[in-house]
Amino acid sequence: MKKNTVIDHKPYMENDSKVYVDVNEDRLKDGSLIPLSIIWEDGRRFEIDKILDIRHAASLKAGGAGIRYTVCVRDRETYLYLEKDKDLLKWFMERK
After folding, report:
1. Residue 4: inside a domain, yes or no?
2. Which terminus of the chain is less hemmed in, N or C, by CB atoms within 10 Å?
3. Is 69 a member of any domain?
4. Cα torsion for 72, 54, 41, 10, to the nearest 10°?
5. Are 95 and 62 in contact (CB under 8 A)?
6. Which of 44, 21, 12 is nearest to 95 (CA)?
7. pLDDT tens-digit profile of 63-94?
8. What is the mean pLDDT of residues 19-28?
9. In a domain, 56, yes or no
10. DSSP 43
11. Could you tell me the residue range of the domain that residue 88 belongs to?
């Protein structure tokens, strides 16, 4: 007789290293998005001081891929990703 096994699955959207964030953004006439500020999961708002680089890249730490914005926030360089999930665009960051 076959034994029943219990498999512990994390929900689809759960990932300890990936944080989906709200972003205030400008949309240019060519369709590109320029992030202006990030709203962290606890509600804190961080202004983006400067965008240093924009390129297609994968997040090796959090998983997922899309457009990676290298941004400067409070004199610290960090990554902000814009991923496409079906027809939705979602912003995420890697948890430090």
Report:
1. no
2. N
3. yes
4. -140
5. yes
6. 21
7. 888 999 999 999 999 999 999 988 899 999 99
8. 96
9. yes
10. S
11. 18-94
| pTM strictly above 0.70 | yes
Q: Return the DSSP state at 42.
A: T
Sign of the C-alpha dihedral computed for residues 38, 78, 80 and 71 taken in this order:
positive
Tokens 């998005």, residue? 33
Instruction: For 26-57, give one letter per residue: b (16+ CB within 10 A) or e.
Output: eeeeeeebebeebeeeeeeeeebeeeeebeee
Would you give the DSSP letter of residue 13?
Answer: T
Residue 3 located in a structural domain:
no
- Tokens 């205030």 — which residue? 24
What is the rounded CA–CA span in Å between residue 90 and residue 37?
14
Domain count, the chain: 1
The two three-digit tokens of residue 86, written as one number: 């079906």
Rounded to whole angstroms, the Cα distance separating 96 from 94 reads 6
Q: Residue 10 — very low, low, confident or very high, per pLDDT cuts 50/70/90? A: very low
19 and 40 Cβ atoms separated by less than 8 Å: yes
